[in-house]
Amino acid sequence: MHDLDPIVESALEVLTPPSARDPDWYDVLTRARENGHAPAALVLPVSARGERKRNSSRRVALALAAALVLFGLLVATSAFGLRDKLVHLFSAEQPAPSRVILNFELLDRGAPSGLGPGVVADDARRVLTRSLSSGLTAVLYAAPTANDGFCVQLEFRDRRSTAREGPTDCSLASNRSEGVRAEVVSTGSDSFLLYGSLRAPEATGVEIGLADGRVVTPPVTFVGPPVNAGFFLLDAPKTSLPTEVRALRADGTEIGTARLAKPPSTGFVGWCRTTPCNADPTTIRRLTSLRTSNGVLVTAFIAETRDGARCIWASWTVPTASSFSACPAGTRAALALGLAAVGVQPDAALVLLGPVDRTVVLRIEVESQGRTIAATTPTAGYALVELPAITGRPRSIVVRGLSSSGKVVASQLIELPGRH
Amino acid sequence: MEKVAGATLAQIESAYRVHAQRFHRLAWSLLGDEQAAWDAVQEGVARAVRARDSYRQEGPVEAWLWRSVLNSSRSMYRREAARHRLEREAVCDLAGGSPKGTHGDASTDADAVRAAVTRLSERQQTVLFLRYYADLELIAIAEIIGVRRGTVSATLVQAQARLRSLLEGVGDDA
Fold first, then answer.
1. What is the pTM of this model?
2. Of B20, B43, B91, which is closest to A42 when you measure between CB atoms?
3. Exposure of B103 by Cβ count < 10 A (0-12 exposed, 13-18 middle, 19+ buried)?
4. What is the ipTM of this complex?
């Protein structure tokens, strides 16, 4: 570096020695996806506004094309006696925002090899919007998959239009339950949302049976290729939870029924259906991912609970979803060494830790039987670390938090659980 | 990997993987906190991912990412640097009082350099760090921070002279 003063050059070398930490591309994607949670200065790039302007003229053209196609479809369906079934051109629906596209992309990036849904994220579209009694607005996005299926993602927006990620689901495209599928997720302490799809060619609508005996018929929005499905949302108070969804033909006869589990599921993320404790699904965020030495992708999540606490958990699929979590109440504030949880799968043990006060703890070490067996640096206040095989007894570990000077500032003794 | 108008995710990922450590050194230099620096890098690149449609191919993707990381670091510095310093001092007290200078020569040197660097102007710091840590040519630095090459050259000379005088203990307080 010929134009630098040697004294200055050596001084700068001392200032910031190279970091031992590896770059984390998954973390970048997650942050990019979660612009609603990002620091205010980073939420809305100027370019995003330009993107909307560019898209608006394209959307006008698409809308005109869609109107023509819809007119044609209306004429065609009338001719075939399917007047009640209006099919929208999927590609003419409003494109999904980049955070949703990224989330769909992560379904494949985060899935174990060969188990990804093959989602075509760039083709994601907004298919439904519904105002909820909780004050939120639910938006349902759909994206086709390479094998003629589709994935959906729910998003909840508050009155300030702040978006919060809801569940992402690739199971609705299944033809189980005679073409009708539905799930129920919590949207607040006393309210739930049913979202579902209809994929029987002759189906023109659904009716939903409620726990109080009433039957309701929400509007169904049908979209054409490549998704070829109808979608519906139903805002359901706690006192009248949905119990089943029936797919109907135009003449009112029943095609099939999807019965809903009681109590309703509390939401899930991606290909993992495991959400612990009392977590509010609208607050779920992915923290970090780790591929274990036996090739299993483990993803750590965090969510607020309805009683004001915070849950962290990690989940994986071997071959069905498993998870471990830590959700004691009253743990919103970062502690010197936060919560710690340990999960064991057949060939690997994992420790999930957080939130760690990063002004105090810069390095995490795991000790077993008097020797350090793993070490890591917390990412954004959390750490997910794989432990090497532990043999002998007692089956316990000590997690230690070290300061920048290497001093142990906090430690926890953790008993290892039994194998799942 | 999909192609979008602007930069592709693959381009950004590739540049990120190649330059992440140097991004981090730049951010660390500006923020004075290793962990906060990683946050700034991750946020800066995430911001670029979100705004990847805005990349106009007027220069390499790397330069565009440098600008994003630099802006992210500056934002974080303005927002949190003062708070971080207060917290570090408080933690030092709580941990039994480990005053500066007790961590060994390396920390002492780094603290002295950091103290001197903080007395440079923001532009001087930026030019110096981009030249040293990013190893960027002056013209590239000029494009990233939006000034002329001659301004970068002059700023670099001033920054080095001032830093050297500060390190030698003859700097003024201006």
1. 0.41
2. B43
3. middle
4. 0.75
